[in-house]
Design brief:
The complex is a heterodimer of chains A (about 260) and B (about 220).
Chain A (H helix, E strand, L loop, with lengths): L3 E12 L2 E12 L3 E5 L6 H8 L7 E6 L2 E2 L7 H5 L2 E4 L11 H12 L4 H14 L15 H13 L5 E5 L7 H16 L3 E5 L3 H7 L2 E6 L2 E6 L1 H6 L4 H21 L7
Helix pairs in contact in A: 3-4, 3-5, 5-6
Chain B lengths: L2 H41 L5 H13 L3 H14 L6 H27 L2 H9 L4 H31 L11 H11 L2 H32 L5
Helix pairs in contact in B: 1-4, 1-7, 1-8, 2-4, 3-4, 4-6, 5-6, 6-8, 7-8
The chains are: A alpha/beta (about 260), B mainly alpha (about 220).
Bound molecules: adenosine-5'-triphosphate (ATP) and magnesium ion (MG).
Chain lengths: ~260, ~220
């Protein structure tokens, strides 16, 4: 049995009186890519934020590499160094250039040597095609470039796993691809990832497993070809239908005959 | 206007201006430190302390400096505390300015988005590192215009120091007015304050422009 990087047991999360995650269980194997999909408000972001300690949980337990990160005295800054997270909104630090953005965590939080980290950062920037922008400030970058830098910033911490929360949702369509390609590359290298996305084609391409969430629980969990071809529940079928409709609408908007199935 | 009179009194005004700007500088630097500390306490809602600080801010901003100085200089002697004029002036200005600077810096802190804080946390920064490297630089950039306005306001407020017998610009000018050359001393008083405040104002204007060019502030 492959080792689990992440284990979630009976997770309950409430905001005030309102519970939004109701006893969720999930295991993520080393090197596995889990794509989380589900309707708006079903708790996808909240789930990722609980894993990263940005939201306190009310019940249940989360284990990272077999160690609980929810009970006892937790050093969250140390846990977070092992879990990279990229958000939907461009979250680079506006007062630092690209290189400074990337170096901050490794130098200050991890106390690593500058020469070593800088060489690594340059290699990562080259990989996402942004080495020539290392002295630029975030305000001088496009949305897609910012998100690629944000990914590099998280990777440079050498995390055990990465969490992506709709990282292309605020991008112009022509920039979505360049960001998704970077994530596909990570999957090929065996990075353990949890990805929340509304890009169904991307989900099919990148996922080892698709998790369909609705109303704060996991409704279905299956290999992508199984989930997308033969969803088991009515809820999942309904959800997927809305996407097909959207794709058809998109084709009509584009006025492209070949686009329709 | 008597030019010779003015020229003859330039050294005297120079000395007074030096005193004024020294006191102002010391008071303003202190008020920045007090303001920063208070703003951070309020930002983190440190229990108890943050209520105390809120009260201090209201008190300092809603009482005239003249009253604060009277209290320090005359009031405290009643309970056996004798402060020198210079000390009173600096403490008074810092007390007044601390409240104003706290509000300026707090508005800067409030302007730093939640996503900034969360992305700082998610790269494993500790609370202190987060404040130092992510939050404060951005907050201060936003706060620059308000800090500039407060600084100039505080320099102008120094004109009440004369009431506790400090030989600052106002004191010297009032002295000369009593001798009868009120036009000349008035003129010199205005020019002196202009000479003090214009460079400060120019400095902040350039700072704001540089911040804006770096994509910071508003
Ligand atoms: N800070 C908060 N305070 C109160 N309620 C919240 C908070 N954050 C999220 N919620 C609620 O929790 C539920 C789950 O939200 P969440 O953001 O996790 O959904 P999501 O699946 O990510 O949706 P989307 O696809 O729109 O991003 C929603 O009903 C939302 O209103
Ligand atoms: Mg979300």
């Amino acid at each position: 049995m492959a080792q689990h990087v992440l284990e979630i047991r009976n997770l309950h999360k409430s905001f005030g009186e309102r519970e939004v995650i109701h006893g969720l269980d999930l295991d993520v194997r080393k090197g596995e890519v889990v794509v989380v999909i589900g309707p708006s408000g079903c708790g996808k972001s909240t789930l990722l934020r609980c894993i990263n300690g940005l939201e306190p949980i009310q019940q249940g337990e989360i284990f990272l590499n077999g160690k609980s990160i929810t009970s006892g005295k937790i050093k969250w800054n140390l846990v977070r160094q092992q879990i990279g997270m990229v958000f939907q909104s461009y979250d680079l630090f506006p007062h630092m250039n690209v290189m400074e953005n990337i170096l901050l965590g490794p130098l200050k939080a991890q106390g690593r040597r500058r020469e070593e980290v800088e060489a690594e950062a340059e290699a990562l920037l080259a990989r996402v095609g942004l080495l020539d922008r290392k002295d630029s400030f975030p305000s001088q970058l496009s949305g897609g470039q910012k998100q690629r830098v944000a990914i590099v910033r998280a990777l440079c911490m050498k995390p055990e796993m990465m969490l992506f929360d709709e990282v292309t949702a605020s991008l112009d369509p022509e920039m979505v691809r360049e960001v998704l390609d970077v994530i596909l590359g990570l999957a090929d290298e065996g990075m353990t990832m949890m990805i929340v996305t509304h890009e169904m084609a991307f989900a099919k391409a990148v996922a080892d497993r698709v998790i369909f969430m609705d109303g704060g629980v996991v409704v279905e969990s299956a290999r992508p070809e199984v989930f997308f071809e033969t969803p088991q529940t009515e809820r999942a079928r309904k959800f997927l239908n809305t996407f097909q409709f959207r794709e058809v609408r998109h084709c009509l908007d584009e006025d492209d005959e070949d686009c329709l199935p | 206007m008597d030019i010779d009179y003015i020229v003859a009194h330039i050294p005297m005004f120079g000395k007074a201006a030096f005193l004024t700007i020294s006191l102002a500088l010391a008071g303003i630097l202190l008020s920045l430190l007090i303001g920063l500390a208070c703003a951070l306490v309020r930002y983190f809602r440190v229990p108890l302390l943050h209520r105390l600080i809120a009260a201090y801010i209201e008190l300092s901003r809603n009482t005239p400096l003249m009253i604060q100085l009277f209290f320090l200089y005359y009031g405290l002697t009643r309970v056996g505390i004798m402060l020198e004029g210079v000390t009173c002036a600096i403490v008074g200005l810092a007390f007044l300015g601390g409240g104003y600077m706290a509000e300026a810096i707090r508005s800067g802190l409030d302007a730093v988005g939640r996503v900034q804080i969360e992305s700082g946390l998610s790269i494993g920064l500790s609370r202190l590192q987060l404040i130092r490297y992510v939050v404060l630089p951005q907050a201060m950039a936003v706060a620059v215009p308000a800090i500039a306005a407060n600084t100039i306001f505080l320099i102008k407020e120094t004109s009440v120091f004369s009431i506790i017998a400090l030989p600052d610009l106002m004191y010297v000018a009032k002295d000369l007015m009593k001798e009868g050359n009120s036009n000349e001393s008035n003129f010199m008083l205005v020019v002196s304050y202009l000479v003090l405040i214009l460079p400060v104002s120019l400095f902040f204007t350039r700072l704001e422009r540089r911040m804006r060019r770096a994509g910071l502030g508003h």
